Amino acid sequence: MWSTILFDLDGTLTDPKEGITKAVAIALEHFGIHEDPDRLTHFIGPPLDESFPEFYGFSQEQVDAATELFRDYYTRQGWRENIPYPGAAELLRDLKAAGRTTMIATSKPEGMAVQILEHFGMAPYLDRICGAPLDKQEGARKANVIRSALPFVPQGPVVMVGDRRHDVAGARETGLPCIGVLYGYGSREELERAAADVTEEIELQMGEIGRLIYATHTGTPSDSGDVQNILEYVDSLYEQLEGHEAELKRMRGLLLCACCGAENEGDWVYCRSCGQPLERT
Predict the structure, then answer these.
(1) Exactly one of 8, 10, 49, 163 is catalytic; which is it?
(2) Fewest C-beta in 10 Å: which of 192, 216, 271, 276?
(3) Is 8 a catalytic residue?
(4) pTM greater than 0.90
(5) Residues sharing a CB contact under 8 Å with residue 84, sequence separation 6 or more, in sequence order
């Protein structure tokens, strides 16, 4: 069994959609770009200095201005618009009670992560909260955030848990296995692409939630016990979320793309796989 679990924050323990997408939309308005916040969920997870250039071709000067506008809204209001995922606090509590070390490794500024986790009552169940340093873009890379956390990890097996390709890539770069959760903002296709060369992959259905948890190893498993470790940990996630199927389904309906058949979150307008408009019935 894993002795230390590093959790991502956005899309893994809390749903930050409203605050983040509003803040991004406000920043884009400054540059004459008008976007529906519901179409900006791809900003959830990666650092802003990666997303603004990737999706809008911003220069460094524009990135700096947009980041300042984003933070102005998010620090005043957006952070309060997070919604803890059902069962998240209970999961952390029970892992702590079972003697596990629980930590946060997020690309969100560390001070803001602490504020959010304290506000929602999760901080007491965490041994360490590690985030990005303010105004140090390289420090927000997931691999560097994980590296900042590792000196505080006691001896024993460690796993990263997150919902985006950046979590998988950061874990792989630092030599850790990664469990990807699909109730957040990363698609099945995204996680598969990020872990294309893994040697073990286990796929489990979480009851009626309609979500899959992927457990992937970044290298050859050292022994057959590695697979059992994954199964035991996924079982613990299932037990914590088992009583919350209805609420999760309400928060995150799935839409199947009529064009390619890919699964999409219920609040998406265009298919994240092929880009075609999604039909709602």
Answers:
(1) 8
(2) 276
(3) yes
(4) no
(5) 13, 14, 15, 120, 122
